[in-house]
Amino acid sequence: MTTPELAARLGALTSWHADWKGLRVAVFGLAMTGFSVADTLAELGARVIVVTEAADEHYARLLPVIGVELVEQPGIEVAPERLTAFDADLVVVSPGFPPSHPLLTWAESERIEVWGDIELAWRVRDKVLRADGTPAEWISITGTNGKTTTTQLTATFLAAGGVRAAPCGNIGVPILDAVRDPGGFDVLVVELSSHQLHWVRRGGPGALHPFSSVCLNIAEDHLEWHGSFDAYLGAKAKVYENTKTACVYNKADEMTIRMVEDADVEEGARAIGFGLGVPGPSDFGVIEGILVDRAFLDDRHHTALELSTVAELRERGLGAAHIVANILAAAALARSFGVETGVIHDVLETFRLDHHRIEVVTRHRGVEWVDDSKATNPHAADASLRAFEPVVWIVGGLLKGVHVDDLVRAHAGRLRAAVLIGQNRDAVRDAFRRHAPEVPLAEVTTTERGLPVMTEAVRLADGAAEPGDTVLLAPAAASFDQFAGYDERGDLFASAVRGLVAGDSGEGDAD
After folding, report:
1. pTM value?
2. How wide is the angle at C-alpha 119 spanned by C-alphas 115 and 123, nearest 5°?
């Protein structure tokens, strides 16, 4: 139970150099994030116990080395006896644990304060200081889709401009690892998931005060984790709280506009819009095919600064509308920190998207095969589908509590056919029957996981595709029903496509 004395102690823990010694902390979860939390707390001198349903084997071997106890119990329904006996002062939870998890309902019933890894990182961000004696600034990035691309672009723009910047957070590098990097950084570009933002405070000693922030877009996602769309929306909106310099928002997304309007920001913070249309003053946008900045210049009412052109981006595989939007958002964040427009232009000449993001696998017999396995929800798949026509669409997986009806209805006219994969095929099939009964459907019904799924999906797609078509893997769903992750799903799609090409015995050419 958090007594007044303990609450005062926790409230004072706002520095790496505060008194963390002997603090009893229970860490929930042991994968990359959970281990970074346990390792950080152990280094601070806290007493740490990690509780998890399934421990990553590599990290489990390391815990005794750093002096941390592990309690592993599959299918946790009540708090383990060892946890209750530990008498924790604080819980730090990994992002994978939903608020409804039995461990968290136990912590709430015991009135134990709960932090996420992001709050802990903010509190200890002064471990390594910049040359001026201050901690690294944070640029915070969230959104239903486009977070990773925007985070990578922003960090790349900053680094090219001479700023020591690190992409971290939900992008794969735990933020606590970046905070503790002995080399130090000027800026941490922090990708934040809705799961992480759920645990972020709006005020008080643990509240974030980012230099600049953005919510790229909002659509239904992770409803099974948050419990409702309103809860998901509320978590995302926290990204703008206490922003110091620039709240970057999507002019085409009314919800991000309202988020900025409702945010409690620091005095002097500006609202900076981005969109694919002609920008107003204080916006980033596109004028006659030219990406421009009308926000960070003296005469923004009458002039604009060129960043790149849509034609140049298209030549480099960056011309899809949602990618252009991500570029504008990243440019706005980088410009808010003083990066020159010429630097942004030069970076875009060489920047390439990560694998599994509208990645062309091959062109064979007049058909383009595109891997957008990262499209793990309908909003991402919608952006991907808008980039191609006509399409043979490979769709399906775990729908995470969301529906594909609107997606099917919106794109029925551009579909040559659809190939259904995944555990929730019934829901996808029903959506087609209701909204696109004229679109031919094929289904992968194998009960095996992995390559057999994609081999059959590619064979069916090949049978439906005609020269000039795009076969698009944009599943609009999570992958864990049949694959280890979206990356494996994309890799096996590419492997199956290469197998198809090789099996054609020289009939036609791949390019």
Report:
1. 0.82
2. 120
